[in-house]
Every structure is written in structure tokens, then in C-alpha cells.
Amino acid sequence: MSKPLVLEKVVKQFGDKTAVNEISLQVEEGEIYGLLGANGAGKTTTMRMVLGLIYPDGGRILYNGKPYGSELQHLMGYLPEERGLYPKVKVSDQIIYLARLRGMSASEADKSLKYWLERFEVPEYYDKKIEELSKGNQQKMGFIAAVVHKPKIVIMDEAFSGLDPVNVELLKATVKELRDSGTSILFSTHRMEHVEELCRNITILHRSRTVLQGSLREIKKQYPREEVLLHTASEVSGLEGIAGVTGVERKERGYLIRISDVGAAKAILRTAMDQSEVEHFEIKEPTLNQIFIKEVGESHE
């Protein structure tokens, strides 16, 4: 069976600048694939090529084993970072029109739109103009516009930026629902914690090249565990003196202890148990944020 989306050594140049340099990746059916990188790393250019808005100068992109063709537009959904709905047009007119452009009948489109408005608990927006909605709700309408025609491949660029925490949770749940129904999602963001929660496989781009790629779980295993989180009922002394401990930071409910050797963890736990009741003990795996900074050498903001 061919994969929904495959990039093979894709290259894009603008004049003498290489924007994307031999990127390869594949997105399985029912997978959220994370595409990460600082601004200017090549993420947006890659997404535009996947969408068929610009063409690669080298390599190829395959959709279910076939090259790009106009009939693919029915398969694709796109949620851009810059929201692009017309402010003065009614939600229903606009989204049904977009769905019909993508090959849906008017009645199917209407049914799908009503499903999504219900799902977001805003059925009354059907007759509202975009400009009458708050920014967060305009964003939800953008999301509906991207998925109303039931695409098999969805491209999401900073899907959650500018949303409040409640709406982020709602949209995350919806993205997982799409994934579970078999949709393939290429997901680009600055927010590492969203990637940790949603994505199984990732590619990190830096200056147009791939610097890290693979399953998040496997990637994390390659990096040393350098922190221990310890919550105790009362104070613990002498943690600094343990061999392999390089720093102790007092936290609200205990200590964050930096270690140079994972073997120090046992001694930390023993010391804590001798002096107090241990409420929580965790050898932390590195966060994706820490890995990103190690690989790219700059913070991602």
C-alpha cells in the first residue's frame, strides 16, 4: 500500500538561495507528523510544495504513490498561519462555497459544516459574518474551512497560535479525531509541547537541511537524562554532595536536581528517603525543547 504523503530528496531554490535542501519524509495514514524548525528553516516552503502552490526544483513529492495533479485538491486541506476568510461574507456562504470548489455537493457541504459547528458548540455562527466573530472563533472557522470537504491529507501551519487554552484543547481533541479517522496530517509549529503530545514522528529543519528525524520516542532515547525531579514532604539536605550531582534547584514542592550521570539517581532517592517522605521521584527524559536547542543551537521563538 502506498503512503498518503512521501517527500523524496526535495529541493527548492530561490535564485542562489537554497530554501529546502534534500528533504525526505513520509506521513502514514492516520498520523500527525511534526515538521519543526526556527523561522527561515524551510518549513513554510516545504508546506507550499506539498500543497502544489510551488514546485520542487529537485526530488519528488508523491500522494498515495502518484505525483501532484489538480484532482488532488479534493484530497487536501490547508490551515495556513495567516487566516484567509473574507470578513464580510457569511460563514455558511463562504465555507460551503469552498467545499464545493473541492468537489462536494452543496447539500453534503451544508451537512458537514453543520456537523463541525455543532462539534465546536457554535451552531449559531452559520449565519454570522466572519468579522462579527472573535479572533479565536475566526480561527475555528478557518479550521472548519480546511476540513469541511473531508480531506485525506491536511497541512496545518501553526494551527493553535493565538488561541486561548480552552480552544487549544478543543482543537487538539479535534485534530486527534481526524487522525483516528485515518487522515494524514503534516503539522508545523513552534510549540514543542504540542508536538510531544500529538506527533509520533518528527523532522527538525535547520537552515534548509534536516538535522534530526525519526520517532520521537527513539530520538529521546539518544539523549542523556540530566534531570531528576524530587518532591518530598520536608526538606532534604546533602543532595549537593552526592557524586554525579551538578546542581540542585529548590522548587515549589521539592527539588530539580541536575546530574551528569544517571547512576546518581539511586543515591538521590536513598538520601531523600532517609530524611523525609518521598511524594514524587522522576528521572526526566529531555524535553523536545531541550533537544531542539541542542541541535539547532538557538531558541525557537
UniProtKB/TrEMBL annotation:
Keywords: ATP-binding, Nucleotide-binding, Transport. Coiled coil: none annotated. SUPFAM superfamilies: P-loop containing nucleoside triphosphate hydrolases (SSF52540). PROSITE patterns: ABC_TRANSPORTER_1, ABC_TRANSPORTER_2. It holds the Pfam family ABC_tran. Residues 5-232 form the ABC transporter domain. InterPro entries: AAA+_ATPase, ABC_transporter-like_ATP-bd, ABC_transporter-like_CS, ABC_transporter_ATP-binding, DrrA1/2-like_C, P-loop_NTPase. GO terms for molecular function: ATP binding; ATP hydrolysis activity. PANTHER family: ABC TRANSPORTER ATP-BINDING PROTEIN (PTHR42711), ABC TRANSPORTER ATP-BINDING PROTEIN NATA (PTHR42711:SF5). Belongs to the ABC transporter superfamily. This is ATP-binding cassette domain-containing protein. It comes from Paenibacillus faecis.
